Amino acid sequence: MRALPVGDRALLVEVSTDEEAQALHADLLRRRAEGSLSVREIVPAARTVLLDGLDDPSPSRLAAQLSTARLPPVPPPAKDVVEIRVRYDGPDLAAVAELWGVSPDEVARIHAAAEFRVAFCGFAPGFGYLTGLPARYGVPRRATPRTTVPAGSVGLAGPYTGVYPRSSPGGWQLIGTTDAVLWDHARVPAALLSPGTPVRFVPVDS
Fold first, then answer.
1. For residue 66, what pLDDT is reported?
2. Coil, strand or helix at 130
3. 30 Cβ partners below 8 Å, 6+ apart?
4. What pLDDT is recorded for position 93?
5. Do 144 and 184 sit in the same domain of this protein?
6. Is the pLDDT at 206 greater than 70, yes or no?
7. Chain mean position to CA 108
8. Is there a single domain that holds both residue 49 and residue 107?
9. Which has more confidence, 59 or 11?
10. How many domains does the chain divide into?
11. Per-residue burial over 67-91, b = 16 or more CB atoms within 10 Å of its CB, e = otherwise
């Protein structure tokens, strides 16, 4: 783990894996909740966590502490499971089935049986990068991205599952669709998913 000062009041902490980033994010949230860390924002990504708005006048001191700290394991989710009803009818379902060496129905069964967790958010408001599928089910992005992916499309790319909150270009392998609203500015909070949220996909008929 390496912590790098960013300006006067921020740190970027680099780790080696997604799981370490999730564990670090959870530990920093715990420290902030108990009052041992004063920071405005804690923003996880694939292998980094950004601490922005530190009250400590010497971020380098905190950087040194974090660089030598041992990470605890990822704690059990502290949030309720978000269930997303999905129709496994995506245009890339057959291609993913071929990559996995199973039938399309088995893709749906495997995906719905996994216990997902939001690792981090990005790309578009409300878009969560979900981990939970075993590594052997990682798939490449499409060689040619689509110019338009409909809102509610459930896709796979690398180790991640994601749901498109709005229509946009995209190169993920689309295996299903959902009517769940991922982003609603009139809702509090606006995002259905946030880092650390446990997610379960529930198959429904088309």
1. 81
2. strand
3. 75
4. 98
5. yes
6. no
7. 20
8. no
9. 11
10. 2
11. eeeebeebeeeeeeebebebbbebe
